[in-house]
Design a protein that fits this description.
Order of helices and strands: EHEEHEHEEEHEHEHEEHH
Radius of gyration: 19 Å
CATH topology of the largest domain: D-Maltodextrin-Binding Protein, domain 2
CATH architecture of the largest domain: 3-Layer(aba) Sandwich
Number of helices: 8
CATH class of the largest domain: Alpha Beta
Structural class: alpha/beta
Length: 207
């Protein structure tokens, strides 16, 4: 029997995923203090690969990993052909539009400048609002953009809002609720259904 492969996101989400896997008896082979990127659990026939959050959906879609644990934000930003099979309920935050306090964000006949790390999500959202936008793709602290007049608004993940407040910004509109999801490769779901369902049930019963 071949091992099932699970892709885990590096960082805080990966640490939370590790805790729940440990809780259900499937995380003993994982060592987050190691520099290794692959952990093999021969007892349960599971391999874990440890990758950047944005790469989890790619590994799952391409069939390198059968399952993955990743934030809903990554799923929304990447138009990938995978199954989303379980909301794991941790890593909760919101996608929000934020700007300098008191600013009216919608400009019916003008183009709104939007700074974000998530261009695809922003394009889809504002298209539904019938708002013309110019995307300004940033990889660092997007909160700076309205302050230096690079953008009118930002689209970003917001957990507590403390960083926004510290920089004189406020949430203008909440877009989506975000949390960690268990995702699955489509072919794996068909041919490894029983094993995948067992892991899914274990996770669901321990949330």
């Amino acid at each position: 029997m071949d091992n099932i492969t699970i892709a885990l996101a590096k960082g805080r989400l990966g640490k939370q995923a590790y805790k729940i896997l440990k809780k259900i008896g499937l995380g003993d082979s994982i060592d987050l203090d190691s520099r290794k990127l692959i952990f093999k659990d021969e007892k349960n026939k599971i391999d874990y690969i440890y990758v950047k959050p944005s790469d989890v959906v790619t590994y799952v879609e391409k069939g390198v990993a059968d399952l993955g644990i990743v934030g809903k934000d990554v799923i929304l930003e990447n138009d990938t052909d995978i199954y989303e099979i379980l909301d794991l309920g941790f890593g909760k935050c919101k996608f929000s539009i934020a700007s300098i306090k008191g600013q009216n964000i919608y400009k019916k006949d003008d183009t709104l400048k939007v700074a974000t790390k998530y261009p695809e999500i922003s394009k889809k959202y504002f298209k539904e609002k019938q708002q013309k936008i110019e995307i300004i793709k940033l990889n660092g602290s997007v909160e700076l953009a309205p302050l230096v007049k690079l953008s009118d608004v930002i689209v970003d993940l917001v957990e507590t809002g403390d960083t926004l407040k510290a920089n004189g910004l406020e949430v203008i509109e909440d877009m989506f609720n975000i949390s960690a999801r268990l995702i699955c490769n489509r072919i794996s779901y068909r041919f490894q259904y029983d094993r995948i369902q067992r892991i899914t049930n274990l996770l669901e019963n321990n949330l």
